[in-house]
Design brief:
The complex is a heterodimer of chains A (about 475) and B (about 280). Chain A contains 21 helices and 16 strands. With about 475 residues, chain A is an alpha/beta fold. Chain A folds into three domains: about 130 residues, Fumarate Reductase Iron-sulfur Protein, Chain B, domain 2 (Orthogonal Bundle); about 160 residues, FAD/NAD(P)-binding domain (3-Layer(bba) Sandwich), CATH 3.50.50; about 150 residues, FAD/NAD(P)-binding domain, CATH 3.50.50.60. A five-stranded parallel sheet of chain A has the order 3-2-1-4-16. In chain A, a hairpin with a 5-residue loop joins strand 10 and strand 11. The longest helix of chain A has 21 residues. Chain B is of the alpha/beta class and about 280 residues long. The longest helix of chain B is centred in the C-terminal third of the chain and has 23 residues. The chains are: A alpha/beta (about 475), B alpha/beta (about 280). Chains A and B meet through strand 5 and helix 16 of A and helix 1, strand 8, helix 8 and helix 9 of B. The structure holds flavin-adenine dinucleotide (FAD) (2 copies), iron/sulfur cluster and FE2/S2 (inorganic) cluster. The site of FE2/S2 (inorganic) cluster has 12 residues of chain B, from loops.
């Protein structure tokens, strides 16, 4: 990117090494349990600059390779060192449409920060924290400017689903001069960002600001529009859309298939989180109910499980258990989230697997029968396979169970689109580089293609598909 | 925003409302429903599309005021708006020429099964509609039902009108009279659907019921709507709402429908309090 004047301090290896990684201020665990306010509070400009100075401005930055969308990390960090915070945000946005979101939810410890040269020598640059700082600064300053949109191309693209994949594609396509309509089945756009990830990890005001920005760019968003029902993909294509991008996510929750799973008080994490986040059950002004139980077991070890568990704590639950069949080191949740959960008082029942939900005569959960597990030989995922320990069954005293054991692809579009090929698991088959599906004019990306993955991968897929769609519509011979 | 075009009281606590929703009106088929949210703090609730007019771009819903949201909906008059209406959701009814079909509607269920009865009638079936209510004043849509079936039979629990007794008794008489019945469709309270299914099972008469589990998104994303059918968990919103009546675990459905009884009571009290406050303000 820019090869502008270098920042002397940042290049001073010795000086940089003396600066410790700057911790982001956080709300006290006891205090934050009373509400849904965000836990980390963000860097001040001083802290951000101090942290930014730790970056060595490598000539061959490894962090960039670690980032799925190859953000020019040294460049945006350099702007922060120089005090050009707005410039930093603009720089970020050339690669990533939603830096305020990614700065908060990306698993940096597995991506850019994992390969940062400083990781080998100690502790990496806090890239995620800096990303968040720059994006927040720009938003709070109200300095967001709209890019120049080229003259209308006359092409119309439909985007199905308004999660990170759909929103990213929509933003890219509208900036190319195409007319874009996003169809969302729910009443609010944002996908998992609004219904799944809780307020205390990703304030909804940020998602709303990003969506407002897209609307200002000219993206039209139609909510309450379940494609496959109100209109099929084929109908979109024959009613004036030149191409369709399917980004409907992997929202269908899985259950374990153990006895008692349909008792009152057994939730999927999606249902529990939707009731609290999207429907705002934590706010007494809203009317959607959610059970407020005393002792809850959350089954699973990923981000979704941690989000459900920490939400349950904030809803006033006395005891919240994480029931996970492997050990801590295999937990797929972000380290930060496990750490935050621990601080907040989550109890971890590791190497434990549920085998039956126990109910009372009225059909309510009264306990969860579990069995202890031990780790055996590695399985196909490379992780050691958990095997039950004979005779180690015991009953966990809980009155509510939340299943967070994964999701499968959203079935509505595949079910209603003839000619759209899916994998045996129901994922839409699409070219990795272009998102092109087996059906002419139909592209797909995000969780519906990959299965449950990450925000940034979904965004990356949206961006690539936008480019391919742009090419496709321009080369398409129009039959009118 | 979706505009309310007309509202009419059909019986005590039962209203019929016509809403402007052109896209849904064009696409909907018999047996489908919408998810509706009245206002921003509101809950999303499923309501059956009782009828629709694709030319006028309207859908008709019939609802019973049982709690917060339906009561709030009941206060809306022509010219008012509801915030969200999403649909048409759920699988449409499987319609073909079966032969003789008995369509049973209990109470509000008459309105919910209306579109199914109509579709089966239009497909050339001989449709015997049995409509029922607790008493005469609660019986709805009698005249309209006459137009969309071959034979109409009426039953009231208290005998104030038509046959004195339950619709299942009318069905039993039909079976006993030796009439060949190819399909039974039952829509109404869970105990009615359970009773009809229990009755037809020994005779091997195919029976379809339209289930009403609690729903949140109705797009397949939460599983709130889980019902056990033939020992397998199914998502009512995307795999239903119609299922083989002989396979449904009604006991589980009834228990699950009571999940939020306590909170619903609270909300209801809140609604009543807010209404009485409003009424006092208007008086002043
Ligand atoms: C609780 C939770 C926590 C997570 N935490 C993290 C995290 O910390 N970091 C991270 O990187 N990732 C996280 N993830 C994963 C991440 O959110 C997803 O990988 C990402 O959102 C996928 O984006 P998407 O655009 O493919 O789909 P989604 O975000 O799932 O959006 C799909 C949208 O399409 C809509 N839709 C579906 N079908 C239709 C239809 N037929 N018509 C119209 N609209 C339709 C849905 O309603 C939804 O709004 C988390 C996921 C969950 C559930
Ligand atoms: C597919 C389907 C179609 C339906 N069609 C109609 C209809 O056409 N007319 C009609 O009057 N009713 C219909 N219902 C039932 C209707 O959705 C409930 O009566 C309504 O949600 C009650 O909400 P409330 O706030 O007024 O009452 P509440 O006090 O909240 O609830 C009263 C009772 O309604 C049920 N209920 C509550 N919330 C829901 C929910 N989110 N989803 C489903 N049931 C719920 C519960 O059994 C509860 O005990 C249908 C339900 C389903 C699943
Ligand atoms: S690898 Fe680390 S130190 Fe080097 S440029 Fe990237 S962030 Fe900075
Ligand atoms: S209502 Fe959520 S999956 Fe059916």
């Amino acid at each position: 990117m820019t090869d502008s004047p270098t920042c002397p301090e940042a290049h001073d290896l010795k000086a940089a090494k003396k600066i410790p990684r700057q911790k982001m201020p956080e709300r006290e665990p006891r205090q934050r349990m009373k509400h849904f306010d965000e836990v980390p509070m963000g860097y001040t400009p001083e802290l951000a600059q101090k942290e930014a100075k730790r970056c060595l401005q490598c000539k061959k930055p490894l962090c960039r390779i670690g980032c799925p969308v190859e953000i020019d990390i040294p460049a945006f960090i350099k702007c922060i060192v120089e005090g050009d915070f707005v410039g930093s945000a603009r720089n970020l946005k050339e690669y990533n449409a939603l830096p305020a979101v990614c700065g908060r939810v990306c698993p940096q410890e597995d991506q850019c920060e994992k390969v940062c040269i400083l990781t080998k020598k100690g502790i990496s640059v806090a890239i995620g924290n800096l990303e968040r700082f720059a994006a927040d600064y720009e938003r709070n300053k109200g300095t967001i400017t709209l890019p120049k949109i080229p003259a209308p191309t006359g092409y119309r693209v439909a985007v199905v689903g308004s999660g990170p994949a759909g929103l990213t594609a929509a933003g890219e396509l509208v900036k190319m001069g195409h007319e874009v309509v996003v169809f969302e089945a729910l009443h609010k756009p944002g996908g998992v960002l609004v219904y799944g990830i809780p307020e205390f990890r990703l304030p909804k005001a940020i998602v709303e600001a990003e969506i407002d920005y897209l609307k200002k760019l000219g993206v039209k968003i139609e909510v309450d529009a379940a494609i496959g029902k109100v209109a099929t993909i084929d109908e979109l294509l024959s009613n004036g859309f030149d191409a369709v991008f399917v980004a409907t996510g992997a929202g269908l929750p899985l259950f374990m298939g153990i006895p008692g799973e349909n008792l009152c008080g057994v939730y999927s994490a999606n249902e529990y989180l939707t009731r609290v986040n999207l429907m705002k059950a934590y706010n007494s002004h809203y009317v959607t109910p959610v059970l407020r139980k005393r002792r809850i077991a959350v089954v699973g070890g990923g981000n979704v499980a941690m989000d459900a568990a920490r939400t349950a704590l904030r809803m006033g639950t006395e005891e919240v258990y994480i029931v996970y069949r492997r050990s801590r080191s295999e937990m797929p949740a972000r380290i930060d989230e496990i750490h935050h959960g621990e601080e907040e008082g989550l109890k971890f029942m590791l190497l434990t697997n549920p085998i039956r939900v126990l109910g009372d005569e009225k059909g309510w959960v009264k306990g969860l029968e579990c069995i202890k597990m031990e780790l055996g030989e590695p399985d196909s995922s490379g992780r050691r396979r958990p095997v039950p320990v004979q005779g180690s069954e015991f009953i966990l005293d809980v009155d509510c169970v939340i299943m967070a054991i994964g999701t499968s692809p959203h079935p509505l579009v595949p079910m209603t689109t003839p000619g759209l090929k899916v994998t045996p698991k129901g994922n839409i088959m699409a070219n990795e580089e272009t998102g092109q599906s087996s059906k002419e004019g139909v592209f797909a990306g995000g969780d519906i293609v990959t299965g449950a993955a990450t925000v940034i991968l979904a965004m990356g897929a949206g961006k690539k598909a936008a480019q391919a769609i742009d090419q496709y519509v321009r080369n398409k011979v129009r039959v009118s | 925003m979706f505009k309310v075009l007309a509202k009419e009281r059909l019986a005590e606590n039962i209203y019929r409302t016509v809403i402007e929703a052109p896209k849904i009106a064009r696409k909907r088929k018999a047996g489908q429903f919408v998810m509706l949210r009245v206002d921003e703090p509101g809950e999303r609730i499923p309501l059956t599309i009782s009828d629709a007019d694709p030319e006028a771009g309207t859908i008709t819903i019939v609802f019973q005021t049982v709690g917060y949201t339906t009561k709030l909906l009941g206060t809306l008059e022509a010219g008012d708006y509801v915030l969200d209406v999403a649909g048409p959701l759920g699988h449409p009814t499987h319609v073909e020429k079966f032969g003789t079909v008995v369509s049973i509607g209990g109470g509000l269920g008459i309105a919910l099964g209306r579109s199914i009865t109509e579709a089966l009638y239009k497909a050339g079936n001989h449709v015997i509609a049995i409509i029922s209510a607790r008493n005469k004043s609660l019986l709805i849509l009698e005249e309209e039902m006459k137009k969309i079936c071959s034979e109409l039979m009426v039953a009231t629990d208290d005998g104030s009108y038509g046959f004195h007794g339950f619709p299942t008794q009318v069905l039993q008489q039909l079976i006993d009279s030796g009439r060949k019945i190819d399909l039974v469709v039952a829509v109404g309270p869970v105990p009615l659907m359970a009773a009809v299914s229990k009755l037809t099972k020994p005779y091997g008469i195919k029976t379809i019921v339209s289930l009403n589990p609690i729903m949140v998104d109705a797009t397949g994303m939460c599983g709130a709507c889980r019902v056990t059918v033939g020992g397998v968990t199914r998502f009512g919103c995307v795999e239903g709402p119609e299922f083989d009546g002989h396979q449904v675990d009604y006991d589980e459905l009834m228990k699950r429908l009571k999940t939020y009884a306590e909170q619903e009571k609270e909300m209801d009290a809140r609604f009543v309090a807010a209404r009485s406050r409003e009424i006092q303000e208007v008086k002043r």
